[in-house]
Design a protein that fits this description.
With 648 residues, this protein is α/β, with parallel strands linked by helices. The chain is 46% helix and 19% strand.
Length: 648
Amino acid sequence: MASKRQTIVGVCVASLSQERYTRFLDALRAEAQHFDYKLMIFGCFQDLYERTPNDLGEKSIFQLLPYENFDALIVLTESFKDLNFPKQIARQAAEHNVPLFSIDRPLDGCINIRYGYADAFADMVEHLITVHGCRKLNLIAGIKGNPFELERTQQYRRVLQKHGIPVEEERIGYGNFWHGPTYQAVDDFMRMNLPFPDAFVCENDAMAIAVCDRLAEYGYSVPEDVLVTGLDGIDEAANRTPSITTAHQDTVGSIQKIFEIYSAIQNGREYETDVTIPFRVSFEQSCGCVPVVANDASKIMARLSKNWARMTTYDEAMDAMRHEVIRLSYREMLQHLASHMLDNSWLCLRSDYNSSIDSEVDFGSYESPNAAFTDQMNCVLWKNGDVTLYNRFYPLSNLLPDIEEVIAEHSGLVFVPLHFQESCFGYMALSLDTFEFNYEILGKFSSNFCTILQAIQQKERVTILNRQLESINRKLTELYCMDPLTGLYNRRGFYEYMDQHFLEDHGADDILILFSIDMDDLKAINDTYGHKEGDFSLCLISDCMKHLVRRYDSLAAARFGGDEFIVAGFFEPHTRAELEIERTFTEQLSFLNTGSGKDYRVAASIGHVSVPVASCDLESAINEADTLMYRQKQAKKKAQREAAGITE
């Protein structure tokens, strides 16, 4: 990336589509626009807790961080369940002298922005006691031993003790911050022989909602029969009836504090490095402070229905796209995908994505998470109004083609990974100025696109693999059926060829012409000139036979072993082809001998038969041709002895 023209604030976040993080990012975007700061958000959709191959692919996006171009870096540290990873980012930021703001969880050497959960939680317990007169308060705690659970449980105990209310351990259950264990905690309490509580104090909103639902199954109404409070301020807590009394992060306050500190850093003023932003308590219907109004539900349902319809339409389009592209080529897939792209988005793939499709499959290789991207990337699609098949290569360090112009035109960019398990295809960038920007849709889109990329790659690789297997099978067939020295059929290959051609339709009077050819004096050549010359002489015989095969399409030639050869083919009757074939063989052998430059001449004995196909027995034909060939061979030897004056 070239030199900066404007202030760039980087952001790192995991679990990108979670409500509390998207709320922070939306507020950050609004505040950054006020200062004309540009945002570059790098996020993934998993919390990276499991350290699975999929997590490796997810966290690859953080390899892109252009520290040298950041004026400040914000890390939503609580979103990363593996704290080692934010620590690595903090070390890199320190090396580049980039001030790093760690949100909701402290990191050494960083500017830590904390949220004051404890005081807000204590305020709600205090409110139940002092305003509503509650004396019996059940606590639904989080994960036992978790820092957040310990902090909130401690506040619960402290406030009860402050008011002289004994802490009954039986009234403390653990819901592990989600609905399943919370249902069990409520069931466990209902089986106890204890007076029914005045209120359930829950350490987050998800558990408060679960308590309301479970109590309703037992016939209790909130807030008429019992009060309920939560914590976190999630949208569902506000959108249900009754709405949940809760406390939420002062997101705007924390962002304003970040920019205040950043301004102090820029101007050389002193600044705080550890700041606590209090939670804001919202007293709602579940504690009885706000009347339950029936028509509230209709507004909520209308809003949810609109969101549901939008997501359903999007899901249907994605399903159709997935099914459609499976049958398409890579280029066709990109053209089809273009119509479904989000506005102001870039799809960037590794420069070797195409070559990895086209190359041979290497079963021992895998993509290393330490090299998630190539030094040169390829922006294959860009949607800016009309979709463009961009196909532009650019340095990875630039993040996008024409990056300076892109930053100038948009308030911010979001980068998310494209991968299948630990194998990375590239990444996608999206402008924050996109109409109705939605992180949940972004997550669905990137997930679908990853599935498509993997399917296309696998389909193409299967095609390549099939071609490789066909080639291997051909080679195996050659090894199985062909003589390696001469390139002719071996005995097995000859019989398979003949079996196949015997099954073909032949005329009633068609004949099989078969030659048995045996090289003369191979032993003498081996003994006198060596086995290399013996092999040469065998190949010279085979070259004559290949000449026959090229000239007569119906012929097949084989080396039966040693110096024994067979030539056979099917012909119409009365052609007398056997005489022409023998003459052609003899002439070609003479021609090759003349041009060989050897001190010896290669000769062969020949025997042939012609038998009707209808009554042909192949073994009998071979034996008969062999007999005739050996008669010729014996006659030659006898003539040689007589010429030499040798008598028997």
